Amino acid sequence: VQLQASGGGLVQAGGSLRLSCAASGSLLSINDMGWYRQAPGKQRELVAVITSSGFTNYADSVKGRFTISRDNAKNTVYLQMNSLKPEDTAVYYCTIRNTYGIRSWGQGTLVTVSS
């Protein structure tokens, strides 16, 4: 399974970015799709997740600012990030988990928010 993330970059505080992550390869039935992030010197943390039925869950720090969505036909997950803050600066990793519970990770895309 390969996960290709894109959309990261440098943005000013208050700006927006949209991350995309396309899954390819030997895909079994995908259950969860989501995004984690890791800031310098910090542990990786959950940002948002969306299940196959469309249920979503967000970290408290991004609720109301970020929106996760998925296109099952394209095996792609998106993260729309609005009202970005400097504390959102991190490497963002996409992840999928199949119905057997096996998780795969993308390579990460850097998001830098300047103040």
Brief characterization of the structure:
With 115 residues, this protein is mostly beta strands. Helices cover 0% and strands 57% of the residues. It is globular.
Report mean pLDDT, rounded to a whole number: 95
The biggest sheet amounts to: 7 strands, mixed
Terminus-to-terminus distance: 37 Å
Which oligomerization state do the chains in this entry correspond to?
single chain
Low-confidence parts lasting 5 or more residues at pLDDT below 50?
none
Strand content: over 45%
Shape by Cα distribution: globular
Number of strands: 11
State the helix count.
Answer: 0
What is the helix content? Answer: under 10%
What series of H and E elements makes up the topology? EEEEEEEEEEE
CA radius of gyration: 13 Å
Helix-strand makeup class: mainly beta
Could you please describe the fold and organization of this structure?
The chain is mainly beta and 115 residues long. Strands 2, 4, 5, 6, 9, 10 and 11 form a seven-stranded mixed beta sheet that branches. Strands 1-3-8-7 form a four-stranded antiparallel beta sheet, with no helix packed on it. The chain is globular and about 40 Å long.
Give me the secondary-structure topology.
Layout lengths: L1 E5 L2 E4 L4 E8 L5 E9 L6 E6 L5 E3 L7 E6 L4 E6 L8 E9 L4 E3 L3 E6 L1
Parallel strand pairs: 2-11
Antiparallel strand pairs: 1-3, 3-8, 4-5, 4-9, 5-6, 7-8, 9-10, 9-11
